[in-house]
């Protein structure tokens, strides 16, 4: 959630008007009249969003935006009298999240801030969901939602059982699984022929070894079963 907003503009009346609207919406508002003051506020306070003018005394908003983007992904909205397409494109190109002309009403500006806030929340939720669906070990990644397996960025084509077997080993790296444990987890029966497991492990190893830069390997623990380990040369 965006809580603390920094207004950077040399026009005091505009800042005071915007502050009134933002305070009513529950935001904490900070003010700076130039780039130097803005940097001081950013060093002292955990700001969630910048509403930044372009034409200011001294350093421009474009320059300040560029320098901030080298260190931070904080949301930045340009608020400016410049309305040319070239100015808008430039502002977005150097890292602004939105571009608002000063002819917009305070209500519209607040609405744009809230729209950006909603996009950030949705993006964060989507990213977190995607991360939860991905299992990783070294340079092996398994997307459990799409069932796509990749090693070093290269896709590994697997059968259903091969996928289930590798997924289990990847979710518990370095843990030794016995033949019986693998049979029960993947094939659904407690006891069976260990040869079945050995055949599938052999197929998996063959496919993994064909990929360049494979930093994982399935290790045989003699007389017991298998585990997934990092390769010695990784």
Automatic annotation (TrEMBL):
Keywords: Cytoplasm, DNA-binding, Phosphoprotein, Transcription, Transcription regulation, Two-component regulatory system. Residues 132-230 bind DNA. The modification 4-aspartylphosphate is found at residue 53. It is found in: Cytoplasm. This is DNA-binding response OmpR family regulator. Residues 4-117 form the Response regulatory domain. It comes from the Bacteria. PANTHER family: REGULATOR OF RPOS, TWO-COMPONENT RESPONSE REGULATOR ORR33. It comes from Bacillus chungangensis. Residues 132-230 form the OmpR/PhoB-type domain. GO terms for molecular function: DNA binding. Pfam families: Response_reg, Trans_reg_C. The keyword Protein transport does not apply.
